[in-house]
Structures are given as C-alpha cells and as structure tokens.
Amino acid sequence: MQRKFNKQPKLHIKKGDTVQVISGDNKGQKGRVLAIFTQKLRATVEGLNIVKRHTKPNAQNPNGGIIEKEAPIHISNLKVIGNDGKPTRIGRKADENGKLVRYAKTTGEVIK
C-alpha cells in the first residue's frame, strides 16, 4: 500500500547525507544519498542496491545492452552517519536562533 501525503513529510535524511543500510541485501554498506522520493518514502544511495536494466538501442545508447544503476531503498532501512563516523538516530531541536536543526541522538552534535 502506498502512503499519500497532502504535504511533504519530514524525513530524517537529506540529499547529500552519508547513510548506512541497516536491513536488506546491502546491510552494513555505506553511501551518499543521491535523490529522495518523499511520496514513496524512498531514497537512492550511491553504489548501493544495483539493478540491471536491459535496454533497446536508442539515441543515447546506440548499441543497447545491459545498464547497471541504483534502485531506491526505503528510508526506514537507512541510518545517517554522524560526525563521529557511526550510524545514529536523528532528532530535531531549535538552535539559538529558533531554527530547527537536526542533531545526532547518540552524541547530541548538530548534523549539517
């Protein structure tokens, strides 16, 4: 069942974050988030969850063939790597200016 949202949900990961997979075939591997699909609650991670796509010849690829590319992973299977290099849960709190920032639950440090 796909979840429908009227507005964009708040997610614990952002594009550019370094994440670790905590479940599935790629468990334990790390990579950088390339794209996030908020409506499907999935993220594409660089170098992880590689699938093979068989393509017909076209203008970009005149010979066709098999292309390997990253497939999206559900965000519940990803944990953000904190500033200390370890996976951590993410919380939100207001900084001194009143703006919400993400912080690592394990160390309390603000994640950029």
Give me some keywords for this one:
SH3 type barrels; 112 residues; 6-stranded antiparallel sheet; 2 domains; two-stranded antiparallel ribbon; mainly beta
Fill in the CATH topology of the largest domain: SH3 type barrels
The H-and-E topology, N to C, reads as EEEEEEEEEE
> Cα distance, first to last residue?
33 Å
Give the fraction of residues assigned to helices.
under 10%
The number of distinct β-strands equals 10
Low-confidence stretches: none
Mean pLDDT: 91
- Judged by helices, strands and strand pairing, the structural class is mainly beta
Widest sheet: strand order?
6-3-2-1-7-8
Q: Given the C-alpha coordinates, what overall shape results?
A: elongated
